[in-house]
Amino acid sequence: MLALVAAGAPRAKISSMRPLRTSLLAAVLTVAAPLVVFTLFPATDASASVSIAVGYDALVKDADAVGVVTPTDSKTVWEDGRIVTYTHVKVDQGVAGDLGTGADGWVRTLGGVVGKIGQLVDGEPVFTANKSSLVFLRKFKGTGTWEVSARAQGQYPIVVDDSDKTKAASRRVMRSGAVGLVLPPKTATAPAPVGPAGPARVDPNGAADRAAQVRLAGEVLHDRPLEEVTRDIAASWKKLHTTTPASPDRTPPSTTK
Fold it and tell me: Collapsing DSSP states into helix, strand and coil, what is residue 58?
């Protein structure tokens, strides 16, 4: 979406955005997710989103479903003082979870245009009509509506090599351009054990080594054949999701952004 920001347009921090589950909240932290209010007039300035990179395992575990979807249409509405877009998608391929091939549904994202007023939220997923994406979805407040886990980091547009559409490798998964600036994840350092001679010597490279062991979702999935990626996700899903059904009224920890 092309946003034209009006001079002197009001800007506000987003508050009360639905938080990520604990498993993913530890891996993803949105440092800046500005809400830019604009009208259809010449632009002056803009802001960028800065986020902590999400781990691949954390992304798979946080999602309620994974699938390849294609947007067909959308609608925008006002909700609690902000504009929200609901995109109607068709499920081209159910990869994991409660998302069947051939089904359809609505995906909720922040931002959009209602009349002559628009709101642009950096770091949100971007859906374009008839353009397919691999998405990691989670149920929004226990309703039939979905939202993308980890925001734009949970959406991977699919590109097709026009030179050869007959091979499976021609459809590739790419990192979303809406992610913005992504910083490496922080890894907590365990306290050094204390012995008779005092604290043990800590390996200065320990934290770096542990951080290197975290497989980042963008690095694992970017620029790989779709068929190969969906096979790996399905296998990871079985390992990371328990067989015990989740409570339908689960409530994630309260926070604000």
Answer: helix
